[in-house]
Amino acid sequence: MIRPQFKIDFQPAGSRIDVAAETTLLAAAQLVGVDIKAICGGIGICGGCRVRLVHGTLTEAGVDEAAELGPESLAAGYRLACQTRASSDVRVEVPPDSLTASQRLQLEAEQTGVELDPMVRAFDIELEAASLDDVRSDATRVREALARVDAGDVSFGASVLARLPGLLREEHWNLRIAVAERRAPSAERRAVSILPRHSRLLGFAADIGTTKVAMYLMDLATGETLGALGAINPQIGCGEDVISRLAWADHTENGARTLQQRIIDTLSDGITELCGRQGLHPDQVVDAVVVGNTAMHHFFAGLPTTQLGVAPYTPVVTDALSIPARDLGLPLAPDADVHLPPNIAGFVGADHVAMLLATDAHLVTGTVLALDIGTNTEMSLMHGGRIVSCSCPSGPAFEGAHLTAGMRAAQGAVEAVRITGNKLLVRTIDGRPAVGICGSGILDAVAEMLSAGMLDERGNILKSHPLTQDGTLVLAPAPHDGSRREIAVHRRDVMEIQLAKATIQSGIATLLSHADLSPEAIETVVIAGAFGSYLDIRSAIRIGMFPKLPQERFRQVGNAAGAGARQMLLSHGRRRIAGEIARRAEYLELSTQPEFTKRYLKALWL
Amino acid sequence: MIRPQFKIDFQPAGSRIDVAAETTLLAAAQLVGVDIKAICGGIGICGGCRVRLVHGTLTEAGVDEAAELGPESLAAGYRLACQTRASSDVRVEVPPDSLTASQRLQLEAEQTGVELDPMVRAFDIELEAASLDDVRSDATRVREALARVDAGDVSFGASVLARLPGLLREEHWNLRIAVAERRAPSAERRAVSILPRHSRLLGFAADIGTTKVAMYLMDLATGETLGALGAINPQIGCGEDVISRLAWADHTENGARTLQQRIIDTLSDGITELCGRQGLHPDQVVDAVVVGNTAMHHFFAGLPTTQLGVAPYTPVVTDALSIPARDLGLPLAPDADVHLPPNIAGFVGADHVAMLLATDAHLVTGTVLALDIGTNTEMSLMHGGRIVSCSCPSGPAFEGAHLTAGMRAAQGAVEAVRITGNKLLVRTIDGRPAVGICGSGILDAVAEMLSAGMLDERGNILKSHPLTQDGTLVLAPAPHDGSRREIAVHRRDVMEIQLAKATIQSGIATLLSHADLSPEAIETVVIAGAFGSYLDIRSAIRIGMFPKLPQERFRQVGNAAGAGARQMLLSHGRRRIAGEIARRAEYLELSTQPEFTKRYLKALWL
Question: Which terminus of chain B faces fewer neighbouring Cβ atoms within 10 Å, N or C?
Answer without folding.
Answer: N
